[in-house]
Design goal:
The termini are far apart. The protein folds into two domains: 264 residues, Beta-galactosidase, Chain A, domain 5, CATH 2.70.98.10; 293 residues, Aldolase class I (TIM Barrel), CATH 3.20.20. The protein has 696 residues and is of the alpha+beta class. α4 packs parallel to α5 and α6 runs parallel beside α7. Strands 6, 7, 8, 9, 12, 13, 15, 16, 20 and 21 form a ten-stranded antiparallel beta sheet that branches. The chain has an eight-stranded antiparallel beta sheet with strand order 1-2-3-4-11-18-17-14, with no helix packed on it. Strands 29-28-27-26-25-22-30 form a seven-stranded parallel beta sheet. The protein is globular and about 75 Å long.
Length: 696
């Protein structure tokens, strides 16, 4: 690490901090006006030009005077830590850190922390405890990222409520996020003009890839980035609140989230970066062996394709109580009988869990009603759902039920019931819950990604730890690596998922969607995308279909990472399907993961080795273009032979007119062999590599 320490100097020399392998360098100094600024080089090439750092405070006379540097502190961390579950078991955390202590003439103190990694850089603000300041109200944070050119960007708008947008591909100069505000497929949204959400990924002219995000979002507002389409400068804009007219209220001391830039010479190296989780605190929970990474099915897709409903058909009386009129509509999906059918299917097919949506009262008024506060009861089932009987039945079959809590964006109602809802789960032996927050937040004026809701999501995770419950959050705040600290935060949605293919009026997710997601949203953390649809043409939805081939649906179990992976189609659609064997075999918890190749929005191939068994699984997907991929099996272990089963697009396959055409072939594979595979339009491939002698 190279450092020039500067103390008590209003015109300091430039301070610089290099990453361990000297690939990335952060520079810091103060402007002539005493403002902190930084810039970044990658392999001696400037990638972030001089960029200012600072805040707008509602408090008067706070940090309004020029700063001087009072002290600098440096240190190096080189450690390895173990993921209890994850993309890999052991994670290298190696960085050089610089702490810069600055102060103004009023003795107001501000610290800046910079970390230089070989896969990127990060920095955060710290406002320490000090005389004369007890709390601060932040109107906005003015962190700048001055880019060096008109890069190609993959982005979604800076929506304060949802991430369920399709990604756009454009030059920075062409970003126009405001056009998304009237998207008919989404809830009413708050989108600042020309702001984008993170992670936002970019490619420079020389092929260097950058991805901007944040890590360890704790008691703070989520960050969007305003884009100056003329100067190519990004500036942070925090998610606000219409109720408070500020972005963040905090007592001192304050540490902000880390502002992060992942840096890679090739797109594929972004996926293998562990920068975001490394910037979070170590595991606070210890052993979480009560959570088991797993595949699961669910009473879920049948509602999206119109076969069943979430609601039972009850009526709310004048006292606000749900009553059974005896005239239920007969399409309720979450019945005792239907759930047993799913449990039986799981028990026979190497799948662990069953998710049941629509089991509890309140679905008749779950969305579209302004007076929906208090509608859901998270412990009271509908009359046709016997929760105790089903819990006992699942245990007898070695199956775990997954709870579902849809809050309908009413966090106050949910918080009042958290303990008794999680206690019920504990009593029933359930250790995973899928939470949901569909709709505009009540109380009105709060947003999914503001400080108030960030704290709510964290409260749910922390409360769940007391009951040994893992959280899979839908309509969530963005993932920022908190899974390292709280490994019961196992997965989340936070993207435009599979269900859009069943009911979106725009034709569903295009083939380029997931080859973009792998290099954007997935950099933030695990995704509950719900792959595995075999009935791709959706016969009950004549205007919709899945815009992938069947082989790509298999590949997604490897490409899109989550420690819980849904086997999303109806059980009957897997009957007599040879391709279903890959879903039976594929792992969900990994010893190591290697991204073999890829370009953002075009294609990606990932290989993952299963923990304990040592078996490997490979998945590759493409966009609307057919292409040829050559796999080099150098990642396999020396001296071992693997029985490989290749699931790939048949010669006649095409995502539009022949999506289920698939070829399944077997061969013996050893380290160093190669295989060239044809991917058809919207297609993909999946490979299982089972060690000979384990399952011949």
């Amino acid at each position: 690490m190279s450092l020039i320490s500067c103390q008590n100097n209003n015109n300091p020399k430039i301070i610089n901090l290099k990453s361990p392998a000297k690939t990335n360098t952060i520079f810091f100094d103060l402007t002539e006006n005493g403002l902190p600024q930084y810039w970044v080089k990658h392999n001696d090439k400037l990638i972030i030009d001089k960029s200012n750092l600072g805040f707008d405070f509602k408090n008067k006379n706070v940090f309004t005077e020029p700063f001087s540097i009072k002290n600098t502190v440096e240190n190096t961390v080189d450690e390895e830590w173990e993921m209890p579950w994850g993309e890999q078991r052991l994670v290298k955390n190696h960085y050089n850190q610089l702490k810069v202590e600055i102060e103004n003439s009023s003795k107001q103190k501000l610290n800046l922390y910079f970390r230089a990694y070989d896969d990127g850089i990060a920095f955060r603000y710290e406002i320490p405890q000090q005389d004369g300041l007890k709390s601060l109200i932040i109107k906005d944070e003015n962190t700048e990222f001055q880019l060096t050119g008109n890069h190609t960007a993959w982005w979604i708008p800076g929506d304060w409520d949802i991430y369920e947008h399709l990604y756009s591909t454009s030059k920075l100069s062409e970003i126009n996020a405001k056009s998304y505000a009237n998207d008919d497929n989404l809830a009413q949204t708050h989108i600042p003009e020309n702001a984008v959400n993170t992670p936002v990924t970019m490619r420079m002219e020389d092929g260097t890839h950058l991805s901007f995000h944040e890590a360890n979002l704790t008691d703070y507002a989520g960050m969007t980035l305003k884009v100056d389409t003329t100067t190519y400068k990004l500036t942070s804009e925090l998610v606000g609140s219409d109720r408070t007219n500020y972005k963040v209220y905090r007592n001192l001391p304050i540490q902000t989230p880390w502002r992060t830039i992942q840096i890679a010479d090739e797109a594929k190296d972004l996926i293998d970066s562990r920068l975001i989780v490394n910037l979070n605190e170590p595991n606070k929970l210890g052993d979480v062996n009560w959570f088991t990474p797993q595949k699961y099915v669910g009473i879920w897709w049948e509602m999206h394709v119109g076969k069943a409903t979430w609601d039972y058909g009850m009526t709310m009386n004048k006292n606000g109580q749900w009553v059974d009129t005896g005239q239920a509509h007969g399409k309720h999906g979450a019945t005792t009988e239907n759930t047993k059918r799913y449990i039986d299917f799981v028990a026979k097919n190497n799948i662990k869990g069953v998710l049941i949506e629509g089991w509890n009262t309140g679905w008749e008024r779950w969305i579209g009603f302004q007076d929906r506060e208090g509608v859901f009861d998270f412990v009271t089932p509908y009359p046709d759902y016997d929760i105790q009987e089903l819990s006992d039945y699942a245990k007898s079959k070695g199956v775990e039920l997954i709870m579902h809590h849809e809050t309908s964006a009413r966090p106050r109602t949910y918080e009042k019931q958290l303990d008794k809802a999680f206690q019920l789960m504990n009593d029933m032996g359930m250790h995973t819950v899928k939470t949901g927050y569909v709709g505009k937040i009540i109380p009105k004026g709060e947003y999914h990604h503001g400080q108030w809701m960030v704290n709510h999501y964290r409260k749910v995770v922390e409360t769940a730890t007391k009951y040994k419950v893992a959280i899979n959050a839908h309509e969530p705040i963005k993932a920022t690596g908190i899974r390292r600290t709280y490994p019961n935060a196992v997965s989340r949605e936070g993207l435009r998922g599979q269900e859009f293919n069943a009911w979106a009026s725009d034709g569903g997710n295009p083939p380029e969607h997931l080859p973009i997601v792998a290099f954007t949203r997935m950099l933030a953390g695990p995704i509950d995308f719900t792959p595995g649809i075999f009935d791709i043409k959706l016969p009950t939805k004549p205007d919709n279909q899945i815009n992938t081939t069947l082989a790509q649906q298999l590949a997604l179990y490897v490409v899109i990472y989550s420690p819980i992976q849904m086997v999303a189609d109806l059980p009957e659609n897997y009957k007599n399907q040879p391709a279903f064997q890959f879903i039976r075999d594929v792992g969900v918890d990994w010893e190591q993961s290697i991204t073999l190749n890829g370009e953002v929005g075009d294609y990606v191939t990932i290989a993952r080795q299963e923990r304990e068994t040592g078996n490997w699984f490979v998945g590759g997907i493409t966009d609307e273009n057919a292409r040829e991929i050559t796999i080099n099996f150098d990642f396999l272990e020396d001296g071992k032979t693997y029985k490989a089963t290749f699931y790939q697009d048949a010669e006649s396959a095409h995502y539009k007119n022949n999506p289920t055409a698939i070829s399944i072939k077997s061969a013996e594979i050893n380290k160093g062999m190669t295989k060239t595979i044809q991917l058809k339009e919207g297609g993909g491939f999946a490979i299982s590599l089972i060690q000979k002698g384990i399952s011949d």
